[in-house]
Design goal:
The chain is mainly α. The chain has one domain (21-366). It has helices at residues 2-16, 25-39, 42-51, 57-79, 89-103, 107-126, 129-136, 139-161, 180-197, 203-218, 240-243, 251-279, 290-307, 318-323, 329-342, 354-369, 380-396, 399-416, 425-440, and strands spanning 85-87, 164-167, 171-174, 312-314. The strands form 2 sheets. A two-stranded antiparallel ribbon has the order 1-4. Helix 2 packs across helix 15 (329-342) and helix 8 (139-161) runs parallel beside helix 17 (380-396). The chain crosses the membrane at residues 60-85, 105-129, 141-158, 178-197, 204-225, 253-275, 296-316, 322-341, 348-370, 382-410, 422-441.
Length: 444
């Protein structure tokens, strides 16, 4: 028995370079478990958001788990990083609220757009074009995009909780504080906030469990007939995007594809660099094996688009595992194992209502908005495009418009400030891309 254990640990050491990176199997296992607990909310939040677009929640649950499994396994064995991958919140929010509900495009056709974007995304990752374009985007605009998406997500959470409702006179106003479901969300928000302030790993997931239990106790949420079941069928969403490719025949749809590409471009790259910095992987201002990490993200995005979910991304919650000592792909492998087990708990989808997920969206918005602290607010030519990017997303209820505002105003203010030489030629090209984008979206 001891010999078998030694052989197994020896294989793990050789495969993931545990000794070389001053870690061990136990530490990596704890880190992977913590990472999963911290990001497990996506299993319920993603079906909730995509369900609002008309997609089958059970199929999305399965697609979410499978794409996360594929992404984590690729990150483990291809790049050997303790970074988990799963469908990104910014992309699913754009898919549902901007494309399907905002532009009136069917989810099937929108999913076809994701398939095309995923193929292009994989190609440009293989030829390292992705790295070139990412490096051309100013740091401040990257930070603004992350923060803007975070505020947009928080706004959606405030709406779903009932704390903010529509108003004919002022567009929005505070909701009714007499509704029990609103107070259920408020309870969840306070629980997660307290746990976060105490720096307890898995705060969001624990808060969602506490909110669900209160909802069950008060009768606001009904208990499902079973807690464990067979894996929900992928049938309602599998390959739907591929079968609807012929419907991608309008400039507006290709504009949507462009936005998916741009959002996916920056989503994972910024997170990867931040997590690598935390783990101490950055050497000479470069991240080793970043090409492999980007490929892991690209392939999982492609697989997810076929199964029926929005683009994947590296998860900032991986920082919880890294903080506990996770330094290798073994951490990501353990996380993949837990996502595999989660496939049999789909009945819990019925108890994780919008009032349960709303507090999680608000808190995630706060975490994403923290990137604003790194913005160079002291120079107006930087501050204005950043500000327009951030406020443009929630106020137009469209992530693409916020991005467009920032990319259009940035070259203008920089040239006016006498800083033309600091503008990368790719940013000039993107300026014209977004002019065309806004034209086809009929707002010019």
């Amino acid at each position: 028995m001891k010999t078998a254990t030694k052989k197994r640990h020896g294989w793990l050491d050789r495969r993931f370079h545990l000794s070389e990176l001053n870690t061990n199997a136990r530490t990596e296992t704890v880190a992977g478990t913590t990472t999963f607990v911290s990001m497990a909310y996506i299993l319920f939040v993603n079906p909730s958001i995509l369900g609002a677009a008309g997609m089958d929640k059970g199929a999305v649950f399965t697609a979410t788990a499978l794409s996360a499994i594929i992404g984590c396994l690729l990150m483990a064995f291809l790049a050997n990083y303790p970074i988990a991958i799963a469908p990104g919140l910014g992309d699913n929010a754009f898919f549902t609220y901007s494309v399907v509900l905002g532009m009136g495009i069917s989810w099937q056709t929108a999913m076809a757009g994701i398939v095309i974007a995923s193929v292009i995304f994989t190609i440009i990752s293989i030829f390292k074009i992705r790295e070139i374009v990412i490096n051309a985007i100013p740091k401040d605009l990257k930070l603004a995009m992350a923060a803007g998406i975070g505020i947009f997500i928080a706004f959606v959470g405030l709406q779903e909780s009932g704390l903010i409702v529509g108003s004919k006179s002022s567009l929005v106003q505070i909701g009714s504080l007499t509704a029990p479901t609103t107070w259920l969300s408020i309870f969840g928000l306070f629980v997660i906030a307290i746990l976060m302030a105490k720096k307890i790993p898995g705060s969001i997931f624990i808060g969602m469990i506490a909110t669900t239990l209160l909802g069950l106790f008060t009768g606001l949420i009904h208990l499902p007939a079973h807690l464990i079941s067979s894996v929900p069928s992928l049938g309602p969403t599998f390959a739907v995007g591929i079968t609807h490719l012929p419907q991608l025949n309008s400039p507006k749809l290709w504009a949507v594809i462009l936005i998916f590409l741009l959002v996916a471009f920056f989503d994972t790259a910024g997170t990867l660099i931040g997590l690598a910095q935390q783990a101490g992987f950055i050497k000479n201002n470069k991240m080793p094996r970043i090409g492999r990490a980007l490929m892991a993200d690209s392939f999982s995005m492609l697989a997810g688009s076929v199964m029926g979910t929005t683009p994947t991304a590296a998860y900032v919650e991986s920082s919880t595992g890294i903080a506990l000592g996770g330094r290798t792909g073994l951490t990501a492998l353990v996380t993949a194992g837990f996502f595999t087990l989660s496939l049999f708990f789909s009945p819990l989808l019925t108890v994780v209502t919008s009032q349960v997920t709303a507090p999680a969206l608000i808190i995630i918005g706060v975490l994403m908005a923290q990137s604003l602290k790194q913005v160079d607010w002291g120079h107006f030519e930087i501050a204005l495009p950043v500000f327009l990017t951030v406020v443009g997303m929630p106020l137009t209820y469209n992530i693409s418009y916020g991005i467009a505002f920032g990319f259009l105003i940035y070259p203008i203010t920089m040239i006016a400030a006498g800083r033309r030489k600091e503008i990368n030629p790719i940013m000039i090209a993107l300026f014209f891309v977004f002019v065309l984008l806004l034209y086809v979206l009929n707002i010019l």
